[in-house]
Amino acid sequence: MRYDTLAQMLTLGNIRAGNKMIVMETCSGLVLGAMMERMGGFGSIIQLYPGDGPVRAATACFGFPKSFLSGLHEFPLNKINSLLNGTFSAEMLSSEPKDSTPVEQSNGEHEEKQISEQADEDSIAEAAESNLEEQRTMETVPQDPENKEPKEKGNRRDYIQEKQRRQEEQRKRHLEAAALLGERNADGLIVASRFHPTPLLLSLLDFVAPSRPFVVYCQYKEPLLECYTKLRERGGVINLRLSETWLRNYQVLPDRSHPKLLMSGGGGYLLSGITVVSDSLRADPSLKSCASTLDSHAAEEPAAKKQKCVGSGS
Fold it and tell me: Given this model, what pLDDT does residue 189 score?
């Protein structure tokens, strides 16, 4: 991602202090760090991540103080559908295994793991048989007076307790992020990931309040064209614009200022727009009743009085 593209995303997304933003990015935390720097520690950011946990390698290079991290929340991407359907609960976070590999990876790697484990067992058995003869010839060495087993058990117990504590903290953060997403009043959405943007954007737009901007970055134009078409069919958005960032360096010298012949290509494409109230919300009976009351109030207003024009006598 080029720096001018990142600047365009921050500008089109209206990133400012006090906002409540949603970001889905797979750029090692570069977009997240830029948003945190622009917001200055005020407001809240909900980061959606795929896999086991968020990747924030680039965010750590910014050197933010701890006050900036207080408004940073995280939520797994695979729980978005349950949150939209209203079936999300705290038991879903506590019941899922933390150390288990994803299903996509385990399907292809299960047999290889079994074969590698069998090979390891065979090598261990051979090594044990070869060491039997050496152990018989070796002299017996007196044991250490300090018992090492209780220490190993104590270290393992501390490790398990620390792991449980981290899992509980992560579960609390997920619940806080779910509560913020459940309000569905986010001030903006930024998507910059390696996944196809259409299903991501169509599902995440439900968490954004009306009259709020959204920006989608993709290295190629074709996925954004499909996303553009789906959004036009879906409705609920205006001011859709698909743009390509263009960058050219200039040489600035006395009497010799001119654009350089070589320029950077492949800066990526941006799809931006503004959310509005969709037709499904307009068809809500509660909204219809509000509109009828407004019309009745408008009908009850008295008409403007007509002023008589007094003609000047000739």
Answer: 94
